[in-house]
Amino acid sequence: MEGVLVARSYDNPQLSQTFDVTIVGAGFAGLYMLHRCNQRGLSAQIFEAGDGVGGTWYWNRYPGARCDIESLEYSYSFDEDLQQEWEWSERYAGQPEILRYVNHVADRFDLRPSIQFNTRVEKAAFDSATARWNIQTSNGAAVSQYLVMATGCLSSTNKPSFEGMDDFEGPIYHTGEWPHDGVDFSDQRVGVIGTGSSAVQSIPIIAKQAKQLTVFQRTPNYSIPAHNGPIDKALEAETKANYQAFRDANRRENGAFASRTPAGETSALDATEDEWREKFEHHWQLGSLAFLRAYPDLLLDDNANAIARQFVADKIAEVVTDPTTAQILTPTQVIGCKRLCLDTNYFETYNRDNVELVDISSAPIERFTPTGIVADGQEFEFDAIVTATGFDAMTGTILKIDIRGVNDVSLKEKWSSGPTTYLGLCIPGFPNLFTVTGPGSPSVLTNMIMSIEQHVEWIDECIDYMSHQGHQSIEATVDAEQEWVAHVNAVADFTLMPTCNSWYLGVNVPGKPRVFMPLIGFPPYVEKCNEVAANGYEGFALTSPADSSTR
Ligand code: N01
Questions:
Q1: Could you give the C-alpha distances from 418 to 250, 394, 514, 520, in angstroms and in order?
Q2: What predicted TM-score, i.e. pTM, was given to this entire model?
């Protein structure tokens, strides 16, 4: 019975159904994919592990969780009425507001009837005889022509495994799986492990609530003030007066955001100290990830980057009153090779009497005890511990599913040396499977919503093309994949992005192959995707029931 799966249970008889499209995940990507399928009259179903929509915004409920792309940009653009009618309250929306927005979208477009919650996809196997995916979930089974992985880039938590963790008597939280009822740290001694974006956002808030907060820092991170606040009503009106033009301008930016802050045109190396200080100060005051656009060569030339590093180091020294703490908090790696953080009072928090910073860069955490953590021979006692240790990014969730392609080859085996795709959308040997914002696409280096919309629309149009041409399967060719992987690497190597131990490279997860996963540059990528489609899906083999033709 090769390729045919037998469901473990049929608690829900509906799940023995056949679908045109099965979608994994009910975050921004899955919901829009479902909406497009509904508009086309395709039968489509989302399987979602959580009990609500929202993906990353459903899970990441830690204190201070907030987007680092402005609300007017981090929102769907596909429906004019939606983008006109929805009103954001803050410049950078917090997690609860984004979750309300996603729920509004699910209701507005009547998506819930086609979402099966509390259902985890466990296995998917391609049956070459029928050109269908046989899908096994925690709740039953389904058969589908197309399988769309809308699993998100940051959806599998990277939990540390320190000796003695199970012995700790208090709660251990992970920022990416935060309790839905919230956590009250009042009068508690709290330890936080990690200083990435999640920690940078949560530390100032936990510090205000807890009796004592101890932060364990392995690598300091660059962060700039977000200058968040109530949304600027005049800017909102100006944006909404010509929203699509604003979206189009953003899509022409490398990261598909912040078109109001275009990149500088002259090298940082040509500026005098007075000039670069003035320029960086201006960008600092903007409170945006577009800080890194002050000069065009900041991510291309280490000497140019060093100037930006100096500027931020000086800012940290100005804010943090204890010089030793300031020094420990000052990063030395290339600025921008890990994702820049946006904060509200992050560095200021280290001036509080109840906050302590422990540098574990040379003396890592040794173990947990029933009452705390031992680092560098010293025991720190806690009532609760927060691990802000990030994610098994871009591939973690996909590889948790046992995905089997042609000849029962597993995706895990295929990606054992790192993920390889064509366009970040498709994988040779895995026909009719699409990855939304998959490795090899700009994804995490962009405003995710713009990348998601572009991918979903490409997939939707591809499925439509397949149906009109009478094709039953589409599969990326190995040649196209190899060329694409070489291209992604060449673009990355042209920059400073691969120079530090970032999650973009997978090195934050023990044993994960070191591969730079996202592609840098949104506009040329979109052009390439459009060209591929216009050329009859160049780089893909398309097969029909009667014949098979390779392009
Ligand atoms: O995770 P991270 P994150 N022992 O991987 C440390 C997005 N995001 O959840 O740098 C000790 O960045 C690790 O140390 P090191 C955004 O794209 C967006 O904060 O590996 N420490 C690091 O300090 C972001 O980039 C928003 O040496 C350990 C931290 O834990 C991405 O999500 C908000 C350790 C992990 O930082 C991930 O951010 C939040 C160990 N064993 C997240 N293991 C916004 O939109 C890990 N660390 C604003």
A1: 31, 11, 7, 18
A2: 0.96
